[in-house]
């Protein structure tokens, strides 16, 4: 039984001797005990104007790379199944209209 303040959770606990990593709680246990709270929105009452809209920059911004910089990707682009292509195309068009993304040539 794990307990934190007024929250209890029945959880299996595994003890590993000579472990080289710190002890961790599962996501479920952390949430039930009230140690972690997941939210789908960001709001700061102290700075309400900072977290509104898309955060689009007013003027152009350029990032300067070193001459030896090489582009890389951690993963390859995912393929889109043919039956869902119209949905993806509509979403991309919507994001372009909102100026979230722009097409590149």
What does this structure look like?
This protein is mainly α and 105 residues long. It contains two helices and two strands. It has helices spanning 27-32, 85-97, and strands at 2-4, 7-9. Strands 1-2 form a two-stranded antiparallel sheet. Strand 1 (2-4) and strand 2 form a beta hairpin. The protein is extended and about 60 Å long. The model has no long low-confidence stretch (mean pLDDT 81).
Give me the secondary-structure topology.
Layout lengths: L1 E3 L2 E3 L17 H6 L52 H13 L8
Antiparallel strand pairs: 1-2
Distance, first to last CA? 58 Å
Q: Regions with pLDDT < 50 over 5+ consecutive residues?
A: none
Structural class: mainly alpha
Count of strand segments: 2
Number of helices: 2
The helix content is 10-25%
Instruction: Give the mean pLDDT.
Output: 81
Envelope shape: extended
- Spell the H/E element sequence: EEHH
Our estimate of the beta-strand percent is 5-15%
Q: Strands of the largest sheet, in order across it?
A: 1-2
User: Can you summarize the main beta sheet?
Assistant: 2 strands, antiparallel
Using only CA atoms, what is the Rg?
A: 23 Å
Brief write-up:
By secondary structure, the protein is mainly alpha-helical.
Main features:
105 residues; mainly alpha; two-stranded antiparallel ribbon; 2 helices; 18% helix
